[in-house]
Design brief:
The protein has 357 residues and is α/β, with parallel strands linked by helices. The chain is built from 13 helices and 13 strands.
Length: 357
């Protein structure tokens, strides 16, 4: 197949409720939709999330600006990855450039799977399998966190992740214990500091939390402070989770070399699309590190099914308004279906409603 054009659209979708973290509050979903059209009529889909509306149009324009670099070329994700990596070597594939190239990469893999009439997981040589999923709880204080965690458990989830990083560690403990008292010992609890602490603060707080039975402590300090994360991981008994803000497999390699984390959480948009994810999964397997996903449940379900050290899938419903077939979690597990592609289909009526011109 040959690439004919890219159709790129920016949408601003509503969130059912704002998602508050120690680093800021997300109130709406700015999403860039990419459709990769081929000469043969096959269309590959992908979406990326820009966190803030201020980056929405810029990201969409950047994806579209890459169109002349790839039109007329074969749908060969690894070759296109080499081409774009070389083209952006001086600028770097971080930030919006990394997100834009990942959007193209994911659309390429989706088109390739659709052309073969295979779900992405089978194109990657694996079989669909259930992946354990957790629901995210915002920075909502004890009562709010208990309410949201209870809702996830009522929907069948066996794990929840709490956003913490309150002014005093006693408040962190209060939230964790309030949720534990509500959901019981059979529900896994993760916590996420969203990079809000210094390494010294993270060690001090982590020691206070080591007896709380947590599954992990996520991003206690700055994502690219590999030495800082390594110091935290060395001092705590609770596993440290990091990776959602690493840019590509080279960051993963550096983090592993530094001993920065016990677990890896890859964000398919920041890690380099499907191609970057596969390379990250290989690194995780080579070092026996459990690998989890961040945000993009539909495609992540396929990728985790193919990952040798698959751990947890993060489930959010932020993108549900524009998806025709949102990922469903049943009894705490998500399983990719057998439809061709990566599981992404648009609800075109909703897309038209939330389109940003």
């Amino acid at each position: 197949m040959k690439i004919r054009e890219l159709r790129v659209r920016a949408v601003l979708a509503p969130m059912s409720c704002p998602h508050k973290t120690a680093s800021g509050t997300i109130t709406e979903s700015p999403i860039v939709l990419t459709d990769l059209l081929t000469e043969e009529g096959v269309i590959g889909h992908s979406y990326v999330f820009t966190y803030g509306a201020m980056a929405l149009r810029s990201t969409a324009l950047l994806v579209k600006a890459m169109e002349p670099l790839i039109t007329g070329r074969e749908v060969e994700p690894l070759e296109i990855d080499r081409l774009l990596s070389a083209r952006f070597r001086l600028l770097g594939l971080q930030g919006l450039a990394g997100m834009a190239t990942a959007a193209i990469d994911m659309a390429l893999w989706d088109a390739l799977a659709r052309a073969q009439q295979l779900p992405l997981v089978r194109l990657l040589g694996a079989a669909p399998r259930p992946i354990q999923a957790y629901g995210s709880v915002g920075y909502e204080g004890p009562a709010g966190c208990v309410r949201t965690a209870s809702e996830w458990v009522a929907r069948g989830f066996k794990a929840v992740k709490l956003k913490i990083g309150y002014p005093d560690v006693r408040e962190d403990v209060e939230v964790i214990r309030a949720v534990r008292g509500e959901v019981g010992d059979d529900v896994a609890i993760m916590i996420d500091y969203n990079q809000s602490l210094t390494p010294a603060e993270a060690i001090a707080r982590g020691r206070r939390l080591d007896d709380e039975g947590l599954t992990w402590i996520e991003e206690p300090t700055l994502a690219d402070d590999f030495a800082g994360h390594a110091a935290v991981a060395k001092e705590l008994r609770t596993p440290v989770q990091a990776g959602e803000n690493w840019w590509g497999p080279h960051d993963v390699r550096k983090a592993i070399a530094a001993g920065a984390t016990d677990y890896i959480m890859a964000d398919v948009m920041k890690i380099g699309g499907v191609t970057g994810w596969l390379r990250t999964a290989a690194l995780a397997e080579a070092h026996s590190i459990p690998l989890s996903s961040h945000l993009f449940g539909e495609i992540d379900c396929h990728l985790l099914s193919a990952a040798p050290t698959a751990h947890w899938l993060e489930y959010v419903d932020w993108f549900r308004p524009i998806l025709a077939q949102p990922l469903e979690v049943v009894k705490g597990f998500a399983t990719p279906d057998d439809c061709p592609g990566s599981g992404i289909e648009w609800d075109e009526r909703a897309v038209a409603r939330y389109l940003v011109e």
